[in-house]
Design goal:
The protein is built from 8 helices and 9 strands. It has 254 residues and is α+β, with helices and mostly antiparallel strands. α5 packs antiparallel against α8. It starts with a helix and ends in a 30-residue tail after the last helix.
Length: 254
Amino acid sequence: MQSLERGLAVVRAFDAEHPERTLSDVARETGLTRAAARRFLLTLADLGYVRSDGRNFSLTPRVLDLGYAYLSSLELPEIAEPHLERLVEEVHESSSVSVLDGGDVVYVARVPVSRIMRVAINVGTRFPAHVTSMGRVLLAAGDPAEWPEALRPKLEVVRRQGWALVDQELEVGLRSIAAPIHDRDGATIAAVNVSAHAGRRTVANMKRELLPPLLATARRIEDDLGGHAERRWPDTETARAPRSRRPPRTATPR
């Protein structure tokens, strides 16, 4: 088990900012000795996950198989994508779905309209949860006892209103608004968002123009996931007035 943990640490040593690393880089990043790092790199190379030019190491496309095994087992991305497409066509802004992985959000579905960020976002992209709207939605659904104290006031607001808006915290010029996606038991399993450039959308405009269709999209995704029980959060269909909670529903055949 420890060998698996160390092997995965070697894979995670590579990222968008460090697509190539030397043996010393990998050893330093993972905390392994040079000898151990070399063994893991050579094993990964034999398996086809790493290549080397003699000095630098880099991941091969085969490493995507590891993530694809997870994504292909998920029902959510396949169900969510047509709803994201419909939402994007309606509001003309990019939309994504993500899940929580530790302290990060991981994108599992995305429909972009244009590149509004300096960093590219694709399926599999990770961001710190606390600076993203989807991350705050997902964190707010967790145990309040585990909330970071610095984030507690904001998460309390998110939990109370049932959605989150982040104004240029991840990147200057980027605003995003997110809503939870619940399973049939009412648990939050993912989040869906709409992102827009601050030059195109004010905060008030996002609440007024983007929040209602976003919440409607979350509801449709939930319905296609097999119905849902009473939500654990306030069910706010529009930015102006909350609606009463719906009674539990039974799943309909798909």
